[in-house]
Specification:
By secondary structure, this protein is an alpha/beta fold. It has 2 domains: 221 residues, FAD/NAD(P)-binding domain; 38 residues, no CATH class. Helices cover 41% and strands 14% of the residues. It has a 4-stranded parallel β-sheet, covered by helices on one side. A hairpin with a 7-residue loop joins strand 10 and strand 11. Helix 1 runs parallel beside helix 8. The two termini are 26 Å apart. The structure holds flavin-adenine dinucleotide. Flavin-adenine dinucleotide (FAD) binds next to helix 1.
Length: 270
């Protein structure tokens, strides 16, 4: 089917998620417009740790985890530090999180996650090759290390569950750890997951994907999306000034003519 036969798509937000959604929609033959008031890829996607955790198939909601939450909430350097004022609105989410923290749900979710992540790994490799990102994408794997046997054994069931889900995880002895990373002097036990990938340049990675999106015919409008049209539920609202600018662009530039522009007919939020 030709793009003209398909509805236009609006993607809200030009971070890594929005840009990848945009590329995927272009590949399916849709005309796509990304909306973002900030330069593409300049927000969270520009400054993260650059890890592709394809082997992280275990859901966050693990049995017993909820009992660690109060300590995390009080620790400003912990993984879940929330301003006390936000706690009441977070409570319903925490209750749902706790309801998921049981063995049955973990088995169900890890099976689903492993299916998603396997496909995600294949798709990422294809995207890296197509967009020419090989020089900043590495497939060196990751090592997880423990100082004590007790800590290593505490996680043994989780590692077995990962292996059962098809993750390639290899147990490491102290000599192997030392030869892989001499700086890890205190590490005695560990696991190697070769499928873990990294980008050495998160901002460069997302910027190149944005360029690739544009090269393939994607459009970018530097405007905040102000809301969704409640009447037809299929279009987005832009602030008036931006809508006017976009109308002007649509009328004055031939390649853009014919696009629904600010009245995009389907919406994909990020
Ligand atoms: C310290 C740190 C380390 C991390 N490490 C990793 C890691 O190793 N591996 C990993 O996978 N993830 C990691 N993450 C998470 C990862 O960075 C984010 O999950 C990811 O960048 C989110 O992408 P995004 O496109 O949703 O968000 P963003 O990159 O923040 O993009 C959202 C965009 O939406 C735009 N926007 C917002 N509202 C509107 C609106 N109304 N209209 C139009 N546009 C709008 C914003 O301007 C922004 O550009 C890390 C995050 C942090 C903070």
């Amino acid at each position: 089917m030709q793009p003209a036969d398909k509805p236009d798509c609006a993607v809200v937000g030009a971070g890594i998620i929005g840009i990848c959604c945009g590329i995927s929609l272009l590949q399916r033959g849709y005309a796509v417009t990304l909306y973002d008031p900030e330069p593409p890829g300049s927000m969270t996607s520009s400054g993260n740790a650059g890890g592709f955790g394809f082997t992280d198939v275990m859901p966050m909601a693990a049995p017993g985890l909820v009992w660690r939450v109060p300590r995390w909430l009080l620790d400003p350097c912990g993984p879940l530090f929330i301003r006390p004022g936000h706690l009441p609105s977070l409570l319903p989410w925490l209750v749902r999180f706790q309801a998921m923290s049981n063995r049955k749900q973990v088995e169900r979710l890890s099976a689903a996650l492993s299916t998603l992540l396997r496909q995600s790994m294949l798709d990422t490799r294809e995207l890296v090759a197509n967009a020419g990102l090989e020089s900043i994408f590495t497939e060196n794997g990751a090592i997880t290390v423990y100082k004590t046997r007790a800590a290593f054994e505490r996680d043994a069931l989780e590692w077995q569950a990962k292996i059962d889900c098809g993750v390639d995880a290899r147990e490491l002895g102290v000599e192997q750890i030392r030869s892989m990373e001499p700086a890890l002097e205190n590490a005695r036990y560990g696991w190697f997951t070769p499928q873990w990938c990294n980008t050495t340049d998160p901002h460069g990675f997302v910027t190149r994907l944005w360029e690739y999106f544009v090269e393939r015919g994607g459009d970018v409008v530097d405007s905040r999306v102000a809301g969704f049209n409640r009447r037809d539920r299929r279009s987005i609202r832009l602030p008036w000034r931006a809508a006017r600018r976009w109308m002007y662009r649509a009328w004055s530039s031939p390649p853009a003519r014919g696009r629904a522009g600010f009245a995009a007919s389907s919406v994909n939020g990020s």
